[in-house]
Write a structure and sequence with these properties.
The chain is of the alpha/beta class. Helix content is about 45%, strand content about 10%.
Length: about 675
C-alpha cells in the first residue's frame, strides 16, 4: 500500500473510532488521488463522526461520483461548517489540449456534480463556507448553485472562480442576491462573465445589504460593466471589498468609478489592477481619493498610469487620511513619479504599504525613496523589486535603513545589485532594528554578498526572513551563512534555492541546523546537492526540533535519502519537498504530452504562486501526523527559464489575490 493510501486509511480509522477531529484534509498531491473508493470511505466515515467541522478534499479527483457521495452526506449532517472541493487552477491554465491529463490534478465535479451538490445545499442549514473553484461546472452548473442559494440561509462564503460561468449565470446570481440574506463573500473571478452578467449583479447589489466582498476579476466586464458597478456603489452600503482586475477597463470606466468613490463611504479595498487605466484615469481616481475617507487599500498595478498618474496619486496622499496600502507596480512611473511619491511620504502619516516595483525608477528614484525613509514614521512594507537600481540606488536605500526605525519588509529582488555593492546594505542590516524581511533574490551577489550578509546576521536581532534565491551563491557563501546560523537566534526563514552550494555547502548548512534552534523554513531547491550532502541534511533534521519546512526539489535525491526523510516526516512535524518519479524522464517515456504538462505546471507554479505553503498549511496535524507530500520540481531544466519569464508578468496579480483571499471571508462563529 502506498504512503498516500496509508494516510487515508489511518485518518478513516480515527474518524470511525469517534476521535475528536474538527478538520479533515486530504493532502492535495496532483496525480496521486484517493479515487472513488477513497471518497466513499471518507464520506461514510465523516457521517459517523459528529465532531468534523471542516472538510478539504481539494485536488483529489472527486469528480461527479464523489460529488454525489458528498451531497448525500450534506443532506444529513448538522455539524459541517466548511467544505472545500477546489480543483487545481494552475494545472487547468497550462493543460491546453491535454484535458485528460488535467483532470487528474483537479476535482472536475462538472455540471452533474454541481447539480447534486445544489440539491444538498437547498436542504443543508449549517454549512457556512463552500469552495468549488476550478471544477468545470460550466454556466449551467453555476446557475444551479445560484438557484439553490435562494433556499439556503446558512452559506456566507462561496467560491465559484474558474468555472467558465457566463452572463446567464450572472443574471441568475443577480436574482439570487435580491433574495438571499446571508451570502457575504462571493468569488466569481476567472470566469466568462461579461458586461451583461456584471450589470445584472450590480443591479442586484444596489438593494443588497449583506454582501461585503465581491471578486469579479478576470471576467472581461469592460467599461459597460464597470459603469453599472459604479452606479451600484452609489446606493450600496455594505460592500467593503471590490476586486475587478484584468477586465479590460480603460479610462472611461475608471472615470465612472472615480465619480462615485468620492461619495461612497463603505468600500475599504478597491482593486482595479491590470486593466488599461492611463494617467487620465489615474488622475480621476486620485481626485476621488482626496474626498474619500474609507478606502484603505488601492490596487493600480499593471496599468499605464506613468509618471503623471503617479504624481496625481502622490498629491492625493498629501490630503487623504485613510489609505494604508497603495500598489503601483508595473506602471512605468520612472524617476518623476518616484520623486512625487517620496515627497508625499515625507508628510503622510497613514500609508503602511507601498509597492512601486518594476517601474524603472532607477538610482535617481531610489535616492528620493531613500530620502523619504529617513523622514517617514509609518511605512512598514516597501516593494522596490525589478527597478534596476544597480549600484547607487541600493547604497542610498542602505544609508536610509540605518536611520529608519519602522520599516519591517523590504523587497529588492531583481535589481542587479552585484557583489561589490552589497557591503553597505549589510552594514545597514547590522544597525537596523526594525527590518524583519529582506528579499534580495536575483541580484548576483554571489559568495561575497552572502558572506557580508552572514556577518551582519551575527549582529542583527530583528531579521526573521532572508531571501537569497538565484544569487550564484556557492560553497563558500554557504559556509558563511552556516556560521551565522550557529550564532543567530532570530532568523526563521532562509531561502537559498537556485544557487550552487553543492555537497560541501549542504554539509555545512546541515551542521549548523543541528545547533540552530530558531530556523523553521529552509529552501535549498536546485542547488546541485548530491546524495552525501542530502544525507547530512536529512540526518540533521533528526536532531533539530524547530525546522518544519525543508525544500530539496531539483537536487539528486536517492532512494536512501528519500526513505530517511520519509522516516523523519513520520516521526516529527517536518514537511519536506523532494524530487519524485515524475522528475525522471524515463518514467514517462512515450508520454510526451504528460511530460510537457508537468514541465509547464512546474514553471507556472513557480512563476505565479507566492510562498508555496504557509506554515499553517504545511502541518496538517488534524488529519495525519506529518503527512508525506511530493511536489514537482519548480524548474525541471534550465530550458524552462524562458517559459518562466514569459509568465512572470502575471505573478504579482495572482499573488495579490491569494494574499488577500484569506482575510476576505467573515470570521467563523
Amino acid at each position: 500500500m502506498c504512503a498516500r493510501h496509508e494516510m487515508v486509511h489511518e485518518m478513516i480509522s480515527r474518524l470511525n473510532c469517534g476521535e475528536h477531529l474538527s478538520e479533515v484534509k486530504m493532502p492535495d498531491i496532483p496525480g496521486c488521488l484517493i479515487g472513488k473508493t477513497g471518497i466513499a470511505e471518507v464520506t461514510n466515515a465523516i457521517k459517523t463522526n459528529p465532531h468534523v467541522r471542516y472538510v478539504d478534499l481539494s485536488s483529489n479527483g472527486v469528480n461527479e461520483y464523489g460529488a454525489t457521495q458528498i451531497s448525500q452526506f450534506l443532506r444529513v449532517t448538522n455539524s459541517l461548517r466548511s467544505l472545500s472541493l477546489d480543483g487545481d487552477a494552475f494545472a487547468r491554465r497550462v493543460a491546453f489540449s491535454y484535458h485528460a491529463l488535467c483532470s487528474c490534478a483537479d476535482n472536475s465535479i462538472k455540471t452533474a456534480g454541481a447539480e447534486e451538490l445544489s440539491k444538498a445545499v437547498e436542504r443543508n442549514s449549517n454549512l457556512h463556507i463552500l469552495h468549488l473553484s476550478c471544477n468545470r461546472i460550466e454556466d449551467a452548473g453555476c446557475r444551479r448553485i445560484a438557484y439553490a442559494l435562494r433556499n439556503n440561509n446558512s452559506i456566507h462564503s462561496l467560491y465559484l472562480d474558474n468555472n467558465n460561468a457566463g452572463d446567464e449565470f450572472g443574471k441568475e446570481m443577480g436574482v439570487t442576491l435580491t433574495m438571499n440574506c446571508t451570502l457575504r463573500f462571493l468569488d466569481l473571478s476567472d470566469n466568462d462573465i461579461r458586461a451583461t452578467g456584471a450589470m445584472a449583479l450590480a443591479k442586484a447589489l444596489q438593494s443588497n445589504s449583506v454582501m461585503t466582498s465581491l471578486n469579479i476579476s478576470r471576467n472581461n466586464i469592460a467599461n459597460e460593466g464597470a459603469t453599472e458597478i459604479a452606479r451600484m456603489l452609489l446606493t450600496n452600503t455594505s460592500l467593503q471589498q471590490l476586486r475587478m482586475s484584468w477586465n479590460t477597463i480603460n479610462d472611461g470606466g475608471a472615470h465612472e468609478l472615480a465619480k462615485v468613490l468620492s461619495e461612497n463611504n463603505t468600500l475599504r479595498l478597491f482593486d482595479i489592477a491590470d486593466n488599461r487605466v492611463s494617467s487620465v484615469g489615474a488622475t480621476a481616481l486620485a481626485k476621488a481619493l482626496q474626498a474619500n475617507h474609507s478606502i484603505a487599500a488601492l490596487y493600480l498595478s499593471g496599468n499605464g498610469i506613468a509618471g503623471p498618474g503617479a504624481q496625481e496619486m502622490a498629491a492625493a496622499l498629501h490630503v487623504n487620511k485613510s489609505l494604508q496600502e497603495l500598489y503601483l507596480a508595473w506602471n512605468c512611473i520612472v524617476e518623476h513619479g518616484a520623486k512625487a511619491l517620496a515627497d508625499a511620504l515625507c508628510e503622510n502619516t497613514t500609508l503602511t504599504t507601498l509597492d512601486v516595483g518594476a517601474n524603472g525608477i532607477g538610482k535617481e528614484g531610489a535616492s528620493h525613496i531613500a530620502r523619504a525613509l529617513t523622514q517617514n514614521t509609518t511605512l512598514k512594507v516597501l516593494h522596490l523589486h525589478g527597478n534596476v537600481l544597480k549600484e547607487e540606488g541600493p547604497k542610498q536605500i542602505a544609508k536610509a535603513l540605518q536611520m529608519n526605525k519602522v520599516l519591517e519588509f523590504l523587497d529588492l529582488d531583481g535589481n542587479e545589485i552585484g557583489a561589490n555593492n552589497i557591503k553597505e546594505l549589510a552594514e545597514s542590516v547590522k544597525a537596523n532594528c526594525s527590518l524583519q524581511t529582506l528579499k534580495l533574490a536575483r541580484n548576483k551577489i554571489n559568495d561575497i554578498g552572502a558572506w557580508e550578509l552572514a556577518e551582519a546576521l551575527k549582529v542583527n536581532r530583528s531579521l526573521t526572513k532572508l531571501d537569497l534565491t538565484r544569487n550564484n551563491v556557492e560553497e563558500s557563501g554557504a559556509a558563511g551563512l552556516s556560521e551565522c546560523l550557529v550564532i543567530n537566534n532570530s532568523l526563521r526563514e532562509l531561502h537559498l534555492s537556485y544557487n550552487k552550494i553543492k555537497d560541501s555547502g549542504a554539509v555545512q548548512i546541515a551542521q549548523a541546523i543541528v545547533v540552530n534552534t530558531t530556523l523553521h523554513t529552509l529552501r535549498l531547491a536546485d542547488n546541485e546537492i548530491p546524495e552525501t550532502g542530502a544525507i547530512k541534511v536529512a540526518e540533521s533534521l533528526e536532531r533539530n526540533s524547530t525546522i518544519h519546512t525543508l525544500d530539496l526539489l531539483g537536487n539528486t535525491i536517492s532512494k536512501k535519502v528519500e526513505e530517511s526523510l520519509d522516516r523523519i516526516m513520520r516521526s516529527t512535524s517536518a514537511f519536506v519537498t523532494i524530487p519524485t518519479e515524475f522528475q525522471d524522464p524515463g518514467r514517462v517515456a512515450g508520454h510526451d504530452g504528460m511530460l510537457v504538462l508537468l514541465l509547464l505546471y512546474a514553471v507556472l507554479t513557480n512563476a505565479l504562486a507566492p510562498a508555496p505553503f504557509p506554515p499553517s498549511q504545511v502541518i496538517e496535524c488534524s488529519t495525519v501526523a506529518a503527512p508525506r507530500n511530493f511536489h514537482l520540481s519548480a524548474e525541471y531544466s534550465k530550458g524552462c527559464d524562458s517559459l518562466s519569464a514569459e509568465y512572470s508578468s502575471t505573478k504579482e496579480s495572482k499573488s495579490r489575490s491569494l494574499e488577500l483571499e484569506a482575510d476576505s471571508p467573515p470570521p467563523e462563529p
